[in-house]
Design brief:
The chain is α/β, with parallel strands linked by helices. 37% of the residues lie in helices and 21% in strands. The protein contains 10 helices and 15 strands. Helix 1 crosses helix 8 and helix 3 (130-149) runs parallel beside helix 5. The protein is globular.
Length: 360
């Protein structure tokens, strides 16, 4: 297994400003979008190495089940006929701000749900509070150790279980505030990556950063270094700040770099709804990190961020998830383009920028 998310699947109801009509039964949730990011880079049969868990209530729309099945992932459906599927109400205000609230009681994903195959994953995506992050990492680690000791576990699974997985943690937005900073530092001892978006990062540290102001980039870099340097025990964790239209900023203990967004000024008209872009980024980030396992860790982070940036571009081009179709030759098309085409295009864009910068 290459990737597993413990993020949730939610069915969204989205309301807009008049005269636009609302959308109902929209696939959503951090777990869905993280799965999308990984799935974009894992076509069948490798798509079976992308794992997630979906609670299927008595009201689960059959068209959504069919769409999930069409992705050919390792999706574990948990039947909950005694209750409805987790749903949420969303509304876009005139300012563009999106309000969100759960319409019913949510059902969290825990390590206890994971199948034996999902426990062998090389990467895990977590979307939760600092305390729950620690609990999940400990729980997954303990279950992996227990499965490795099981005499029924085959040698291939034992090998996978004895290798340390990569944990990528997305802190809950409403808990990114100064009072939670120490808990976040504690959680950094258990994960490889902490990834807030820019607003969440600023809220967590009680600072203000404008990415349009050059001096603020140095402030962002220095504060990330302070966070990493404050972690007890010398953690090797990194901070990945998701910056929406400004791309991403990756800070490791010994280096940092910035990648621009795929959709910039010349293609910004294709951005329809940024919801899920950050989750999608992190799912693909996990897959990108696996591409060159023998490479230097810094190089692996650059590959991961590149994958994440390209994946996010697909997520934000519509309400909900992109449409999967196939070409006449059987290639997967997402929004009528292959992932490789977009990856190559983005690579050329970065090369041109680098070449231009050297000429300056």
């Amino acid at each position: 297994m290459d990737f597993v998310t413990l993020g949730m699947f939610i069915i969204d109801e989205i309301h807009y400003q008049p005269p636009r009509e609302p959308d109902f039964d929209v696939m959503g949730g951090g777990g869905l979008y993280a799965t999308l990011g990984a799935r974009l880079f894992r076509s069948p049969p490798a798509s079976s190495k992308v794992g997630w868990v979906v609670h299927q209530g008595h009201d689960f729309p059959p068209q959504i089940k069919q769409r999930i099945d069409s992705w050919n992932t390792d999706c574990l459906f948990i039947q909950t006929p005694e209750r409805p599927t987790t749903r949420a109400y969303n509304r876009y205000e005139a300012s563009g701000y999106r309000t969100f609230r759960y319409s019913n009681e949510k059902v969290r994903i825990t390590e206890d749900y994971l199948t034996s195959a999902q426990l062998t994953s090389k990467t895990y995506h977590l979307l939760c509070s600092p305390d729950r992050c620690i609990d999940l990492v400990r729980g997954i680690t303990n279950r992996r150790k227990g499965l490795a000791r099981d005499p029924q576990t085959n040698d291939e699974m034992i090998k996978a279980l004895t290798e340390d997985p990569i944990f990528v943690w997305e802190p809950m937005p409403d808990l990114c505030k100064p009072a939670e900073l120490q808990k976040c530092l504690d959680a950094l001892n258990y994960v490889d990556v902490m990834s807030p978006n820019l607003d969440e990062f600023c809220s967590l540290l009680g600072i203000s950063i404008d990415p349009n102001v050059p001096a603020d980039w140095e402030l962002m870099r220095s504060r990330c270094k302070e966070v990493l340097g404050s972690v007890a025990g010398g953690s090797k964790a990194s901070v990945v700040i998701r910056m929406g239209a400004k791309g991403c900023f990756v800070v490791q203990p010994d280096q940092d770099f910035h990648l621009p967004a795929y959709h910039e000024q010349n293609t910004s008209h294709r951005v329809v709804d940024p919801t899920g872009g950050g989750n999608t980024f992190l799912g693909a980030f996990c897959i990108g990190f696996l591409k060159s396992p023998n490479a230097d860790r810094a190089d692996r982070f650059e590959e991961a961020a590149l994958y994440g940036t390209v994946a996010a571009s697909f997520a934000i081009e519509q309400v909900g998830v992109p449409v999967l179709t196939h070409s006449a030759t059987g290639e997967e098309l997402w929004n009528d383009v292959t992932v490789k085409q977009r990856l190559d295009e983005y690579g050329r864009k970065l090369a041109e920028r680098s070449s231009h910068a050297r000429r300056q």
